[in-house]
Design goal:
Elements lengths: L1 H17 L1 H44 L6 H7 L1 E4 L19 E4 L9 H5 L12 H17 L4 H6 L1 H7 L4 H31 L6 H31 L3 H30 L5 H15 L8 H14 L11 H39 L3 H12 L4 H29 L32 H23 L7
Antiparallel strand pairs: 1-2
Helix pairs in contact: 1-8, 2-5, 2-8, 3-15, 5-8, 5-9, 5-10, 8-9, 9-10, 9-14, 9-16, 10-13, 11-13, 13-15, 14-16
């Protein structure tokens, strides 16, 4: 049986090699994908170089500050830059839609637009082509163009009856055809990733990046196999080539275009996310409900002052061993950061509700499943960006906290604003070091879509194996 399948696959490969369709589409797609990957890789290298330069310049400017008041330094602020994933030239994910630089300052949390990156991949990113878009969106159309008549054509021409009469089962024919087009997909992916490896050799990569690229290759191969099975099955189920082509294009349209668009549109309608201006207003209102550190008569800070005085056993703020204004600034920063974290958590809860709804619909779309895993393996998904923002906010809070401590301990309350601290303190503040989440950290997000994709594959193989010898 295996020998028969191999012979069928060999014959199909020879037939496709002689066809004009494969000779035109495959080289064209290889060139297009290579050009896109090279363009993205060049942009990535230029971007990383610019980021590194600006980060060094920013750090140098911070350390070059003269003697000044710590609170002025806190408002002078600093910048942190997100180094994008080395695999973003294959799958750009949310990178084209989000910022990569954050300005960190006192009393304020700066970030990118929330609404944009949560739904940035809603419509396949066709406005921003990447290697992943070519593989996940365009390559299934190429398989349809190549194999839509793989079985229906045999039936129309009458050769299917001849093959069955010679002892070849339809099941063997389907597996042979599937193997042939799987080999074509494998060749396409091998060439693409060979070029990608060449790009990677000129980049600074780690072992985890190599592992992520390997997982992306397996995912894409798995996805292509699934589409190959789908095309062959539809070609077998349909009586004519026209029916087969129409049914396959409709299936592609539903699973690759309609379902993703519907999923994200429904998610946004069901769980709307406020834009940045509304979020800032809501956060400011919540902070005002707690207390205003710049208002000396604010009820919260009046009570806070009494607690601090009792803690140090004095009756006046002038008698405190620390600068009262610095203590107030630190408490105000704590409130601001705490309220922001709470409001941000509510925002992310809405985003998670959106993701859950999309995940339910994604069960019926292999594209959505593969697209989710692809950006996650490339570390260019929305979760990776949010992880960076959270790490930057934690650094900002600790950074401002150190400056407020200088204010409280090194500046006297009397004639507060006229005093300064030595510029040597600026070099003692730690720089931002970001550690991206590992694959192990994301395992709970990876397994569900992976298992559903596996179910689709098993279902396809099952349908292939249960095919009957129907020749009419």
């Amino acid at each position: 049986m295996m020998q028969t399948i191999m012979e069928i696959a060999r014959h199909e490969l020879i037939t496709q090699w002689r066809s004009q369709t494969l000779k035109i589409l495959l080289p064209l797609l290889l060139v297009l994908t290579t050009l896109i990957a090279f363009s993205h890789w060049q942009q990535q290298q230029d971007f990383i170089e610019a980021q590194t330069l600006w980060q060094q310049q920013n750090d140098a400017n911070w350390e070059a500050q003269p003697d000044r008041h710590p609170h002025r330094a806190a408002h002078y602020g600093t910048m942190v830059f997100r180094i994008i994933s080395p695999l973003s030239f294959i799958d750009s994910g949310v990178n084209p839609f989000v910022g990569n630089a954050l300005f960190l300052e006192a009393h304020r949390q700066n970030s990118s637009s929330f609404k944009q990156y949560v739904s940035s991949t809603a419509y396949m990113g066709l406005g921003y082509l990447s290697g992943a878009t070519i593989i996940l969106v365009i390559w299934p159309l190429v398989l349809i163009a190549l194999a839509f008549n793989s079985v229906s054509g045999e039936r129309v021409q009458g050769t299917l009856r001849q093959l069955v009469s010679q002892g070849i089962s339809v099941r063997q024919l389907l597996f042979g055809k599937t193997l042939a087009y799987s080999v074509i997909s494998l060749i396409f992916l091998v060439v693409i990733f060979a070029i990608a490896i060449g790009f990677m050799l000129f980049s600074h990569v780690h072992g985890s990046d190599v592992l992520r690229m390997g997982l992306m290759f397996i995912l894409y191969l798995f996805y292509c196999l699934l589409w190959t099975i789908t095309v062959v099955l539809f070609s077998n189920w349909c009586r004519t080539n026209q029916q087969s082509l129409s049914a396959l294009l409709l299936f592609w349209l539903l699973t690759v275009v309609v379902l993703p668009k519907m999923a994200y549109s429904l998610a946004e309608m069901q769980y709307p996310i406020p834009d940045r201006a509304v979020f800032d207003i809501q956060t400011a209102r919540e902070i005002a409900k707690v207390g205003n550190s710049h208002d000396p008569d604010d009820p919260y800070f009046t009570e806070f002052r009494e607690r601090v005085l009792a803690e140090y056993g004095v009756s006046r703020v002038e008698d405190l061993p620390v600068n009262w204004r610095g203590v107030v600034m630190q408490e105000g920063e704590r409130i601001t950061s705490e309220v922001f974290t709470q409001q941000y958590a509510k925002l992310m809860q809405i985003a998670e509700q959106q993701n859950q709804l999309v995940s339910h619909i994604a069960r019926f779309s292999p594209y959505l499943l593969a697209n989710n895993l692809s950006s996650r393996f490339a570390a260019t998904n929305a979760d990776s960006f949010l992880h960076y923002e959270k790490a930057a906010e934690q650094y900002r809070f600790n950074f401002i906290k150190q400056l407020n401590r200088l204010h409280a301990e090194e500046i006297d309350l009397e004639d507060d604003r006229a005093q300064k601290v030595s510029h040597e303190h600026w070099t003692k503040l730690g720089q931002f070091t970001y550690h991206a989440p590992t694959l192990k950290d994301e395992s709970t997000r990876i397994y569900p879509p992976l298992l559903i994709l596996l179910f689709w594959f098993v279902l396809g193989v099952f349908l292939l194996s249960r095919s009957r010898n129907e020749v009419d």
